[in-house]
């Protein structure tokens, strides 16, 4: 007799956001729709044959989500590792580029976690939420997505969490991956990967509450910056991300205060440019990348400032060892061999 395959199993976790918003009076919208209500509005979802269950995990706009919310979500997803083939997260787009990367760092099972949302709420013509939910669910259920960690599926594009960025305030094509492009696309309701992640570093579970505690601001360097903002922060931070010019440069006036800060807390040097890597050995003037790295700053590599902050925030929940933090950034930032990841048992490799 022919074997009857069991349906693929996906859990949808609803967190709120534009995708779940309705008009509650006065012409403005707030998140009110449940996960079941979101799924009921998706044409063609029933005919996919995917077994879907739902969890109303939070009801918040994306801007109000916290690291603690995402850590709790990662724990809840992991608790279902034996029962599902994939997970879908619906949330507000304001913070997807950060929440998705945090989930990628915390999600240790092999099945995919797919984050999606909407730019047009359900009260508007052309609302994109239903199409994004369908695409995300199909992606989460696809066995070829195993080992790819957390993905962002939006506008029929599949993005890796560690690269994706929100690039437009209103466009339905807001998400892009400047360093490498999308991993793949959906065509005729079929997910297709054109390239794959060959390694994915994840982190051990942080101590309870630790992930929410560090205070790590991002300071964007600007023309004529004299360091006044940095000096005001200097006594009240657990770590710092500096979004420097170009390949990792700051005005000479900032060198002394950054040197002082880097002697006390981890200071990560990222670029405000939006794409490309922070260099290490090209420029040598005071405030150049070579000068700052020699003074103890940690190179972000290809991680943009937002991703760099998420990684540092999570690392400080595990360790304050500067060498371990630097090694983690070297791998995550794309300028060191993956085998140098400080937690070898938490390095997922494609074979």
- Number of H- or I-type helical stretches: 9
Order of helices and strands: EEEHEHEHEHEEEEEEEEHEHEHEHHE
Lateral strand order in the biggest sheet: 4-1-5-6-7-8-11-12
Number of strands: 18
Mean pLDDT, all residues: 95
Specify the structural class. alpha/beta
**Rg from Cα:** 21 Å
Percent strand = 15-25%
Taking pLDDT < 50 over at least 5 consecutive residues as the criterion, the unreliable ranges are none
The percent of residues in helical segments reads 10-25%
| Morphology call | globular
Please give the largest β-sheet: 8 strands, mixed
Distance between the termini: 33 Å
In words, what does this structure look like?
A hairpin with a 2-residue loop joins strand 7 and strand 8. The protein is globular, with a radius of gyration of 21 Å. The protein contains nine helices and 18 strands. With 351 residues, it is of the alpha/beta class.
Provide a compact summary of the structure.
The protein has 351 residues and is of the alpha/beta class.
């Amino acid at each position: 007799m022919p074997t009857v395959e069991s349906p693929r199993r996906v859990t949808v976790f609803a967190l709120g956001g534009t995708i779940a918003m309705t008009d509650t009076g006065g012409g403005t919208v707030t998140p009110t729709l449940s996960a079941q209500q979101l799924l009921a509005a998706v044409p063609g979802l029933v005919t996919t044959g995917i077994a879907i269950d739902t969890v109303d995990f939070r009801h918040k706009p994306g801007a109000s989500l916290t690291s603690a919310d995402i850590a709790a979500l990662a724990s809840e997803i992991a608790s279902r590792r034996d029962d599902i083939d994939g997970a879908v997260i619906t949330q507000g787009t304001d913070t997807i580029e950060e929440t998705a990367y945090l989930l990628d760092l915390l999600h240790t099972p092999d099945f995919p976690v797919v984050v999606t949302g909407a730019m047009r709420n359900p009260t508007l013509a052309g609302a994109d939420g239903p199409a994004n939910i369908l695409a995300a669910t199909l992606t989460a259920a696809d066995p070829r997505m195993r080992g790819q960690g957390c993905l962002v599926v939006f506008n029929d594009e599949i993005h890796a969490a560690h690269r994706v960025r929100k690039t437009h305030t209103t466009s339905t094509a807001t998400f892009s991956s400047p360093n490498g492009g999308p991993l793949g696309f959906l065509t005729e309701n079929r997910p297709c990967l054109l390239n794959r992640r060959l390694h994915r570093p994840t982190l051990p579970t942080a101590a309870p509450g630790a992930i929410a505690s560090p205070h790590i601001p991002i300071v964007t360097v600007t023309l004529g910056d004299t360091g006044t903002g940095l000096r005001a922060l200097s006594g009240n931070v657990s770590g710092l991300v500096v979004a420097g010019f170009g390949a990792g440069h700051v005005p000479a006036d900032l060198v002394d205060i950054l040197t002082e800060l880097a002697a006390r807390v981890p200071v990560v040097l990222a670029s405000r440019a939006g794409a490309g890597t922070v260099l290490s050995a090209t420029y040598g003037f005071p405030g150049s990348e070579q000068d700052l790295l020699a003074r103890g700053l940690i190179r972000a590599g290809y991680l943009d400032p937002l991703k760099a902050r998420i990684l540092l925030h999570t690392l400080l929940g595990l360790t304050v060892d500067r060498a371990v933090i630097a090694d983690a950034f070297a791998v995550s930032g794309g300028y060191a061999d993956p085998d140098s990841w400080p937690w070898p048992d938490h390095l997922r490799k494609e074979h």
